[in-house]
């Protein structure tokens, strides 16, 4: 038990300080449990059992189904309907955002839903002259409460169902959840969350990005961009743009070239520099002066506008890219990933939370949730929109969706949900069958299967499941459960249930939602049994609490996805989310007592 507690404590520490990405930490935990098997009770076969666990495979299948729907453009088309309905009325925009994020999240994984709707919501905000900050936190929160409506709304629900089913032999009231088993409670949570966000929450959300701001102003880019004239005696003359900066150890980039009435954007490298050319350079002022002095350049103007950076598509080629947690660029630098060469684009700034990075970006390791401001052509933007490594916050001009497959994709998802709801087939069987159906009908191409899966999520689940087994097997869960049960000496049963909910939300904020259900469900079940109460009510409280991390941008993936595009500060999530968290804790516990009792 001591060894298992030590491994869990080390895992908590690594999750908090992010020594490694969460899925790598989970893999280290799994390996530690196996290596220390004589003390943890975890054999090699049990250690790797997370990879063959029903919940892990079901989550994998649901990710493929969500990917298939995204490839058809169905959610994006729904978003366009949302935009036309919302217009310029901020209240309508907010209501539409909550509805169009929450309801699809009941049957599709809510993380891809938010990823698909970020550009739609950003476009709605831009058209209506509304701050995107006012809509993006509601987008995330709406998808989170929508995911609580059914078993398959979140991976957390699926993992909770699996753990509850595994404990069924020990506690007769526990079992794997059915598709709509807790939907009536989910409806209460969804309604309460929506009403809060439409009223109090809307007033608490700050306008971090002003609707009148250009991207240059929002990212404070003006001090880092300047137009310089290439003099007759400049060392740049006769060299290609790609060669000009070779051997120059300065933090500067040439982002465009102006010659007469024409402007050359990326790809720039092959263009030969001539006397009289005007170069738009990204650098701070001291660096710019050194470059001008050493290379024979002079000031053309000290004011660069978005139109000067992209005159043919005014402002549109300055766009934002969000790095999701599954991006392969996480941990890489722009230089090591050969970002500029691969995508023919310039990175002008990086937003990391409320921090703006302008200098030595090529050498700065990228993190999940980073937002990059890039300058690119329309074709490149469309290409980036199809890459899983990025979320483009602008709608692509020429999206390559498989629109003819929309009815097929919707029918397959409906079939998966319907068949699982009848109880004749379990969700694993119907989800895998749905994946096969999508491949056979061409909704998902065979070569897309690997990119459709968020492998960091799969490794996180597979790595932490043996920790839950060790918690149960060594008695660690019973020990913590007994500690929780002591609160029954001075609290009524409903009070203890609320305490379990709150503890779970705090654990989720520190680690991940999946980790919290794996660790907390055995604890909650043990605590309930020791007090002579129904373990089912306590397990259900843990299930809902683990999907309710509204107070930080890092505890839940959808919060992280909107962090950069909304320009939020870390404290904004606590400001808006803490009252919601308290409100939902009361609504959830009250709903459980009303429907199932304790």
Automatic annotation (TrEMBL):
The chain crosses the membrane at residues 135-154, 174-198, 404-421, 427-445, 457-478, 498-524, 536-556, 576-596. One of its GO terms (molecular function) is monoatomic cation transmembrane transporter activity. Its main location: membrane. It is a multi-pass membrane protein. Gene3D superfamilies: Regulator of K+ conductance, C-terminal domain (3.30.70.1450). One of its GO terms (cellular component) is plasma membrane. GO terms for biological process: potassium ion transport. Residues 213-297, 304-390 form the RCK C-terminal domain. It is found in: Membrane. Signal peptide: none annotated. It comes from the Archaea. Keywords: Membrane, Repeat, Transmembrane, Transmembrane helix, Transport. It holds the Pfam family CitMHS. This is Citrate transporter. It comes from Halalkalicoccus paucihalophilus. The lineage of its organism: Archaea, Methanobacteriati, Methanobacteriota, Stenosarchaea group, Halobacteria.
